[in-house]
Write a structure and sequence with these properties.
425 residues, alpha+beta, SH3 type barrels, 6-stranded mixed sheet, 14 helices, 40% helix
Length: 425
């Protein structure tokens, strides 16, 4: 049944119908997650009826991009009532959220590889560890990155309904390498030439890596109540010499961990894409990961492992340019010199195998551009949802329409103009 909508222009009040709307998840910038029904909108104030029957008033500016789009959809404001509900400066949900680590709890044990892992359970993650590893900092960062994604992507919280994401913190090289070998063997057992090739790459790239993602194939995910998609970290830094002891990684804002978890969140939301629909996917996901790493920590320590052969025997590492603080300045120069082409064609052809510092920084700039204003974030929300629904990145002309451009060429020109503007610094 269609709901009724009443507009009181003089009072600037929009009221929900007596029949009400479906309950929604409301993401508040301070870290609160509220389940409830939108009742009315008065100026910048939104009234939510919670599950407990109590009303809660929230400012639009404190609500997520997806929540504000939902409000606009059901209660579009007359032009005479349009007011600015957001500041020009974008908030940083990951840093503003109030995460209480005292609510984290022991979650039993997790069995894999005939080994027992302790579990620290948070609202959205199960962090597996073995002593002497302390999982609290990584667990807090994971929740902060979850909240960062939930603030932008309206359907993201639903991805975690009844399920959590698994993160493994390997305490030693031996633990880390055994997980990688187990994962490669599991993929190979599925059979087929393609899976054999994937398994070969895992075997070659896993040992030199500091982190990897994997799929918990079979009953493991179901029994443990986690997604198939999982993240594995080395929970330590190797010593500078062979004789030096590894150092445990401490602190919440670890740049490399931020990069990896930002990648995980966008992968979960976008759902991944098959090879035939993947043109532009690397620029979107890896660019986003570098963007979050730099914006939240002020630096980048992430190098990408790449292998151009089917066997994965030619493994090498590539990151961004030397100092992340100077990436905008350096990229501007490279574009002006013609050494980097800031075009849709270049962006759609970027891959991990062909990555180099210049291309990684270009991907970073693309992500910054796609997410640099509230309207662009709203478009980004819809774009990533489209990728999830269709399992492919839209062609440039269709891609551009999400952002209100008439064509891919028009959006490309705007991107190039933005790159050379003072706003990109």
């Amino acid at each position: 049944m269609k709901h009724l909508r009443y507009s009181l222009i003089a009072a600037g009040l929009l009221i929900a119908s007596a029949y009400g709307l479906d309950p929604q998840t409301w993401i508040v910038i301070d870290g609160r997650i509220v389940e409830g029904e939108l009742q009315k909108v008065s100026g910048n104030l939104v009234t939510i009826l919670g599950k407990d029957g109590k009303q809660l008033q929230l400012d639009k500016a404190s609500l997520s991009i997806g929540n504000n789009e939902y409000i606009k959809e059901h209660f579009p404001e007359p032009k005479s009532l349009l007011t600015s509900t957001t500041s020009t400066r974008l908030p940083e949900p990951a840093k503003l959220a109030k995460i209480d680590t005292k609510t984290f709890k022991a979650g039993g044990i997790f069995h894999i590889l005939d080994e027992t892992w302790e579990v620290l359970e948070t609202p959205h993650f199960k962090v597996m560890f073995q002593k002497p590893v302390d999982p609290v900092d990584t667990a807090e960062l994971a929740e902060r990155m979850w909240f960062d994604a939930a603030y932008v992507h309206s359907t993201f919280p639903s991805k975690f309904t009844g399920v959590k994401m698994a993160i493994f913190l390997a305490p030693t090289d031996s633990h880390y390498d055994r997980i990688g070998k187990w994962y490669a063997d599991t993929v190979a057992k599925v059979g087929g030439e393609q899976n054999e090739a994937v398994a070969a790459k895992i075997r070659s790239t896993w040992p030199p890596s500091a982190s990897g993602n994997m799929h918990l194939i079979g009953d493991i995910a179901r029994v443990q109540g986690v997604m198939e998609y999982a993240r594995v970290f080395r929970a330590y830094r190797k010593g500078k010499s062979a004789a030096a002891k590894p150092e445990p990684i401490k602190g919440v804002w670890e740049p490399f961990f931020v990069h990896c978890l930002a990648n995980d969140m966008i992968e979960v939301q976008a759902g991944g894409v098959p090879q035939q629909g993947a043109k532009g996917y690397f620029a979107l996901t890896t660019g986003h990961s570098y963007f979050k790493e730099v914006s939240l920590t002020g630096k980048s320590e992430t190098g990408l492992l790449r292998s151009q052969s089917q066997t994965g025997l030619d493994v090498s590492t590539v990151g961004g340019l030397a100092d992340a603080r100077t990436w905008p300045v350096e990229l501007k120069k490279l574009v002006r010199k013609g050494e980097v082409k800031a075009t849709f064609e270049t962006l759609t052809l970027l891959t991990r195998e062909g990555a180099d510092p210049k291309r990684n920084v270009l991907a970073y700039s693309w992500a910054r551009y796609l997410e640099h204003t509230h309207p662009f974030l709203a478009a980004y929300n819809k774009l990533v949802q489209q990728i999830n629904d269709t399992n492919q990145v839209p062609e440039p002309d269709y891609f551009a329409k999400f952002y209100g451009f008439s064509s891919g060429a028009a959006m490309e020109a705007d991107f190039q103009k933005w790159l050379q503007s003072p706003e990109f610094h």
